[in-house]
Write a structure and sequence with these properties.
333 residues, D-Maltodextrin-Binding Protein, domain 2, 2 domains, six-stranded mixed beta sheet, five-stranded mixed beta sheet, 11 strands, 40% helix, globular
């Protein structure tokens, strides 16, 4: 029997919209999303690596509506295929700040890369990620994932770690899976063609896969152990952060403004159509949105290494996320 998922998008987005509208009302006098004149003086150039996911919608809102300029920085967006790819761009100097999944960030820190958390990006909400499979194929429930060939965006990322968590919660052996690395945009065709049996799809790829390829939802990983799980953040190297405190503070302020503005769903849909390949207006209107926030919540971030350790990750030393956060400027500044 196919699982049924209640749709709560209207309620959740309504809450976000009310919150966003309240923030926009408070900040309207400061010119938020109204083309305020740039901050006096030269803007600091900052290269930001971005992965094509709904998680980075506030980043595009900030760039498209001049929020970075208002905060004294000139941002250039650098495309990245995955969080791991974005972190590689930090290492090479091709990016100053990068979006990455929280799990990819923790893996990089564990490998010895000196990174700092600049801001959060998104937290998983209901149905914002789905494990999808072929209708009437061999995967109809979570236990069916055992022993199958599954897709993931990259090793040691959100896609495989949350799939493992989901399987363990349902009594299926996470170690029985054979993984295939694919870009999110290629996963639907791989499932349809039988190259893989299922995969975890984030938005907007999940909605596009259901709408365009007829894939069906097996499970929502943002439940059980992963309910409300932090899924994305912005990171910088310790060297860049120490040398560019004004740029870091400007980015934090702009992303705080943008996360509030993302409470207006239409803004998120517009940037999805504009910046995410293959996403049309109908798909954007149907996609489920994560919970956007910018200022780090330490207790929630600590869930990431704790969950990774629960499912077999070995750390060279304990990972304390509170030690990796660059405190944001006080609200209202």
């Amino acid at each position: 029997m196919r699982p049924s998922f209640p749709r709560h998008r209207r309620v959740r987005t309504g809450i976000r919209a009310v919150f966003g509208a309240a923030v926009l009302t408070v900040t309207a006098g400061c010119g938020l999303l109204r083309g305020e004149e740039p901050t006096p003086g030269p803007n600091i150039p900052v290269k930001v690596a971005a992965v094509p996911l709904a998680d980075v919608a506030p980043l595009h809102i900030a760039a498209d509506h001049g929020l970075f300029t208002q905060r004294g920085i000139a941002v250039t967006l650098v495309p990245a295929k995955s969080g791991q790819d974005a972190i590689t761009k930090l290492e090479s100097g091709d990016a100053d700040i990068a979006y990455a999944g929280d799990i990819a960030f923790v893996n990089a820190v564990n490998s010895g890369l000196p990174l700092k958390i600049v801001a959060e990006a998104a937290v998983a909400g209901e149905r914002t990620m789905r494990v999808l499979a072929r209708q009437y194929g061999p995967v109809q429930s979570v236990p069916d994932l055992a022993g199958k060939k599954l897709g993931r965006n990259a090793e040691g990322g959100v896609s495989d770690t949350l799939t493992k968590s989901l399987m363990a919660d349902h009594g299926a052996d996470p170690n029985s899976v054979t993984w295939t690395n694919l870009e999110f945009g290629a996963m639907a065709a791989a499932v349809v063609g039988g190259d893989i049996e299922a995969a975890l799809f984030p938005e907007p790829f999940a909605t596009a896969a259901e709408k365009q390829h007829g894939l069906h939802p097996v499970a929502d990983p943002a439940t059980g152990s992963a309910q409300g799980f932090p899924i994305g953040l912005y990171a910088a190297t310790e060297k860049f952060a120490a040398s560019n405190p004004a740029a870091i503070a400007g980015f934090q302020r702009a992303m705080r403004d943008a996360a509030a503005a993302a409470g207006t769903r239409k803004l998120v849909e517009d940037v999805a159509v504009k910046h995410l390949k293959g996403i049309d207006a109908d798909t954007a209107a149907l996609m489920e949105l994560p919970v956007y926030r910018s200022d780090p919540v330490m207790t929630e971030l600590q869930r990431v290494p704790d969950l990774m350790q629960r499912y077999g990750k070995k750390f060279r030393r304990p990972i304390q996320m509170s030690e990796l956060i660059i405190p944001p400027p006080p609200p209202g500044t």
